[in-house]
User: Fold this.
Amino acid sequence: MSFYLPRAERFIENYNVLSAQFKTEDKMILMLGALMYLNSGKQVETTSIIKTREYLRDKTAVFSSFRGINELIIAMMANCQSDDRVFIDEVLATYDKLKSSGFKTGSYLPLAAVNVLKNPNKQAIEVVIERMSDIYQKMKQNHFWLTGQDDYVYAAILATTLQSVETISEKTEYYYQMLAENGFSKNNGLQSLSHILAVGDKTSDEMLNDVIMLQKTIKAMSYNIKHHALPSLAILSMLNDNSEKLANNAVELANYLAKHQGFGDLNIDKNMRFSVAVGIITDYFMDDASTQLEEMVLTSEIQSLIIAQTIAISTALMASTASIMN
Assistant:
């Protein structure tokens, strides 16, 4: 775990700076922001974030999907880019293209637009959107009652890969059914997990065995990963071949975070703390891509994982907020 501690400390510093400025914001949004700044390598400048947020407000209507829970998330994402205003303009343009293609407005569509825009394989936006629509329709065919607008973001992630739509559909359904046969509950969290697993380049059996082993290892350490935190298992399985060691490190890092102010059980549940720990570990592999991950190629692969991890945490945050409101 010692490899990850310097990053954990920078993450905590980022969070403390954000929480000192944005006192009334949801703590998980600020943790997500701290993770995004860690991934970008940029220093948190709250004055700059406020200016970016004001620009986003100027460009969107009061009842826009970019307001509410998305407002600060998108502002921090934009602030981590080389040009925040260009990023916002491009995300808004991509969002409009998604709406024109039949996707419904809502809290999840802005995040899908971000992922379509930042696709690591640099496919044309129109191509990715068309693939995203086809993938989403396949999701609904396989799991009509489970598939909702939260799956827009996963459809976007999958659309940015170079796999065929049919291959993606077959892989996600294989993971869903096989994991259900191995003790995972059939629910929306399992569907999200199966979506992220389909991004990986290991064989289906390798990915499946990794995730089953990861869940058992983590559960033995008193962490029962479930619901919208399940995609974190997929992230870990793709980082290297020693998934069991990574599972232990992730739990140890989550426990380390729990000892710091703002990260205890009164502030964040164990599932989300584990997801944050996985995000910190993923950042380590981004820097170490030339050594630890030579076999994956591959900075673009790890960038995909970082985006997927950010989206997974964002989606979990929105889902938990929606359940509270209901």
Remarks:
- The longest helix spans residues 299-325.
- The chain has 15 helices and no strands.
